[in-house]
Amino acid sequence: MPGSSADYSQYRFYFDVAQFALTGAIGVYVWLSNRARVNQKRFVALEKSVRLKLDRQETQEMIDRQLSGCEEHQAQTRRLEATTSRLGSELREIPKRRDLEQIEKRLGQINSNVSRLEGRFEGVDRLTRLLNEYMVTQGGCKS
Fold first, then answer.
1. Is residue 125 a contact partner of residue 133, using CB atoms and an 8 Å limit?
2. Spatial separation of the C-alpha atoms in residues 23 and 131, rounded to whole Å
3. What pLDDT, on the 0 to 100 scale, is given for residue 1?
4. The pLDDT of residue 26 is above 90
5. What is the per-residue pLDDT across 83-139, written as a single tens digit (0 to 9) for each?
6. Do 34 and 28 meet the contact criterion of CB atoms below 8 Å apart?
7. Non-local CB neighbours of 105 within 8 Å, separated by 6+ positions
8. What is d(CA 135, CA 17) in angstroms, rounded to the nearest whole number?
9. Are 43 and 25 within one domain?
10. Is 30 helix (H, G, I), strand (E, B) or coil?
11. Is the pTM of this model over 0.70?
């Protein structure tokens, strides 16, 4: 069987070459899959980092918006408190009902006094006219 040993070594050679090629292909596949897994892990870590930074930034922006809204409300509250205080002091200076009743009573007294004075002035006016008429007609001036 001398011919069969040659065939066996030839088959062995091809088998070794095929085994080497298959082992090389497996090595390349493992290297590529590990590389993809490492890249995938890096992308996941990068996404988490970016998401965390965006979450922090969005959170800070939201806090800033809320605080700016609070500042506007606080300023408006201060303006309203100042207006309320001013109105309160003005309301304290407004006459009360009792004061208005006293003013009305006093105005009534003044009105009656003015009416009496009006009557007296009518009398004085009448007297003045009579004196004037007397002077003009009777000749109050003799020359």
1. no
2. 151
3. 44
4. yes
5. 999 988 888 888 888 988 999 999 999 999 998 888 888 989 999 999 888 888 886
6. no
7. none
8. 163
9. yes
10. helix
11. no
